[in-house]
Amino acid sequence: MARRTEKGVSKSKQPAQQQKRQPGRESLMRPVPEAEMRKYKAAGKLQGKTALITGGDSGIGRAVAIGFAKEGADVAIVYLEETEDAQTTRGFVEAEGQDCLLIRGDIGRPGFCRASVKRTVKKFGRIDILVNNAAEQHIQYCLEDITD
Q: Could you list the residue range(s) of the whole structural domain that residue 74 is in?
């Protein structure tokens, strides 16, 4: 019998806390994390602004993209290869009436970063906000094992 958790979801139905690939895919998680901020009352604080968000396809980046869209910002999302996650985030942004540009690539390449900025400026005419959110999680059991 599966153990019950705080929210009543059986432990066996929760997603594994680690995925073999990095970055992980939010689209594979069950239950799906909530990032929509359904009860949030927007005040138009970012009306007419443009945000460029790295790692905006899922997790904290997705929540930031949705929050910015609720406040009136158009959003450019840079993501590595999680296209399904990025398209889901775009749907949330567009549901708020804002435009969303998806840019797939590796921010570890400086040329790609410059091209991403150019694409964003070409599409929206400006960048007002930059959120450097892209990250990966690699477990280390001992501080001395971390080299960089």
A: 30-134
